[in-house]
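Might I ask for a little of your time on a matter of protein folding? Here, with my thanks, is the record as I have it:
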Amino acid sequence: MDRILPGRAPVYEMLEQYRMKGNISYHVPGHKNGEAYRGSETAGFLSEVMGYDVTEITGTDDLHHPEGVIREAQELAADCFGAEESFFLVGGSTAGNLALILTVCSEPGMTLILQRNVHKSVIHGLMLAGVQAIFIEPQIDPLSGLAVAPAAAAVQAALAAYPEAAAVLVTMPTYYGMGSDLAPLARVCHTSGVPLLVDEAHGAHYGQHPALPAGALMCGADGVVQSTHKMLAALTMGAMLHVQGPWLDRALLRQRLAMVQSSSPSYPVMASLDLARRLVHSQGAGAFTAGLAAVDVLRRGLATLPRYGLLQPAAPLQGVCGGAGSAAAAGTPPQGQAAYSTQDPFKAVIYDAAGGLGGFELQRRLEEKGMGPEMSDDRHVVLAFSLGSKAEDAQQLLAALREIAEETSGGSANPPESTAKQELSTEYLHTEPAEGQVQASVKYSTWNNFANDLISSPVLFSMKPVNPLETEGVRLEYSAGRTAAEMVIPYPPGIPLLYPGERISEHICNRLINLRQGGAKFQACADPALQHIQVYNIKKGGDA
């Protein structure tokens, strides 16, 4: 592309032209621009969408070999988000995570260093690639007790212990919008000659406004996956993969993307990626003015409602890249680097400071009043704002919170196990947190997941299915000490607390019990109510 034109949306414009031409379809899809439903109301609003639902024909380009409008749209995306090259994803960030892992770990048995609390798509990528995983402990925010990302020193130690590692993968920001400086991690990785991969699914908007934290690319990451549909304005499943630098084999990456994505990608989804990019590209920081104003309404309102607390770092360093962790990279012990130094203003994480309502209960009450939170854990409720949020909506949210505070002022609501705030060491934890070391109300966060060591031994993942003859179901309460024979994933946020072959510690068993009692939803397990859990049968050697 000779000249960057931020105001263009090539894929979207092509679809508009396609619709206006009105050519008779002798190609798939079979609904024939929605004609299959004419005279019927069975398709409803989808009849309009079908008029733009095309396939790879002359003029529409091909996602897996882009030469026309898709190529131009991806080049515009790279310019907008600061990448050397960008790829549209029609399978969400899941497709990007799978493709990155299959690229850096191109053969079974290769080693990847990553934090344990990763999205299920990352675990699936480890399985598909046959990876030897080295898990490193994330740092813990001492006030909230929530995990963030590994310290640069921990990454450096893991790379020294496993110099054969192909890459390092971290998640930033967290589902709660929490983050820290990635620049020291990028420097450590590049010094060791490996790429830094970042699952930035919840940070597609980062770096686009001074009030927002710096994006992973700005901090030196090499491969970055973003869910454009989550925090920007694309349709669900619309995401992007951005790359820069010499550390990734881009030809192999293209091949891997073709493997994990449909050969018939959704053109409406790709058009929505084009529009979402155009909105930010053409309006710049102004695109976020209304959304940030809505957040400000909430923050000011919460200041008048002492019943509720708002999660935020002790010393915010928004927009700073290479600042919060530069001392650590220069040789300062890891304790000197803040675990939690940036907060996405669009992720308002609230909790009942009085301790009367747990997170699950607060979410239920908000839903009863017409509010739709993103997620909750035992203590917190995550409220996701965006550039599409409005101040009047924030006012309605505040009204609902005031009503809930009045309705529960007598303290009759179910209190969490404990609400006393306890201080944690600012060091990252080397072992599972001991009882009383973390607030009881956040020990059961669906985001946290602690391993037994700062740096784990290699864990080999594979596609070999679990043999049902070697497993049995036991009550969850009696599962401590057994070996899991299934994955257990609280969703949202989709962080597996157990994978097949992992020992079920008493700590994890208690967390699962408390999540179940709190109303958490589970995926991937045979019993979604989690009354029972599948474990390896001792007689078959699974626990030998």
